[in-house]
Amino acid sequence: MSAPLLQVRNLSKSYAALKVTDDVSLDVHPGEIHAIIGPNGAGKTTLIAQLSGQLRPDSGHVHYMGQDITRLPMAARVRMGLARSFQLTTLLPGFTALENVAIAVQAREGSSFRFFRAAASERALNDQAMDALRDVGLNSRATQLAGSLSHGEKRQLELAVALATRPRLLLLDEPLAGTGHEEATLLIALFARLRSRVTMMLIEHDMDAVFRLADRVSVLVYGRIIASGTPAEMRADAAVRAAYLGEEEG
Ligand SMILES: Nc1ncnc2c1ncn2[C@@H]1O[C@H](COP(=O)(O)OP(=O)(O)OP(=O)(O)O)[C@@H](O)[C@H]1O
């Protein structure tokens, strides 16, 4: 197996007496979709926040592409290709879908666009933004205001914004939350299509999506990883069923 793209070692984080991340170690390999599942409040979002650089762990290490990034700020991680797909709140509702993505492209490219003349620069920006919209199947909605898009389309746009930073590893926090069956099916197909281009870590409550998409699943309960393996292994694991899947069935 190839060297891990992401290595998490003994990561811990507490809020007062509450251990939200408790000695977490896991590997994410290039090309895989690695799902993190667990009951509400298990610490999934807090874990992703420590991987994206939004939150400092109390102890432990995060290595990305062989480099210790534990203390790197989020912007530096994004430049290295480690991006988090943000929640809908970060979309700008009064701007078009294309503008929302163009802003993300500009943030990534930064100064490199200053070398172009204004008109050429704008065209180059829009071309890249349009590519990202096409990647998520939203090109026909480019001129619509983000605020006027349906919930599922906003989720697609959120993904286009993340893809515009050209990530190697994309951290996805409940990308299907709030979507209907049809929207979820479309997004699942989209992630399946993207898997050849980008490695993904996926937090998701939709077990159907997890078992369809994930190559590996890690199960988090009270901040600890209690099991890690293929979806089939996790489905058959008694501790996992008791801690989580059983709860769903109940
Ligand atoms: N800033 C904070 N201060 C104190 N406690 C916090 C803080 N952020 C999160 N927590 C607590 O940490 C625990 C883990 O929260 P987290 O949001 O990471 O869980 P989760 O697994 O993502 O949950 P869900 O599936 O409901 O989104 C929860 O008990 C939560 O109340």
Mean pLDDT across all amino acids: 89
DSSP strand tally: 10
Hetero groups bound?
adenosine-5'-triphosphate
- What global shape is seen? globular
- Main sheet: strand order: 6-7-8-3-9-10
Quickly count the helices. 9
**What number of structural domains do the residues give?**
2
Radius of gyration, in angstroms, nearest whole number: 18 Å
**Fourth-tier CATH superfamily name of the largest domain:** P-loop containing nucleotide triphosphate hydrolases
Q: Assign a percent range to the helix content.
A: 25-40%
Just give the CATH class of the largest domain.
Alpha Beta
Folded structure, characterized:
This protein is α/β, with parallel strands linked by helices and 250 residues long. The chain has two domains: 1-81 and 168-250, Rossmann fold (3-Layer(aba) Sandwich); 88-166, no CATH class. The chain is built from nine helices and ten strands. It has helices spanning 44-52, 74-79, 97-109, 118-135, 151-163, 181-194, 207-213, 231-236, 238-249; strands at 6-15, 18-28, 33-37, 59-64, 67-68, 82-85, 169-173, 199-203, 216-221, 224-229. A hairpin with a 2-residue loop joins strand 1 (6-15) and strand 2 (18-28). Helix 3 crosses helix 4, helix 3 (97-109) packs parallel to helix 5 (151-163) and helix 4 crosses helix 5 (151-163). The chain is globular, with a radius of gyration of 18 Å. The model has no long low-confidence stretch (mean pLDDT 89). Adenosine-5'-triphosphate (ATP) is lined by residues 15, 18, 20, 38, 40-46. Adenosine-5'-triphosphate binds next to strand 2 and helix 1.
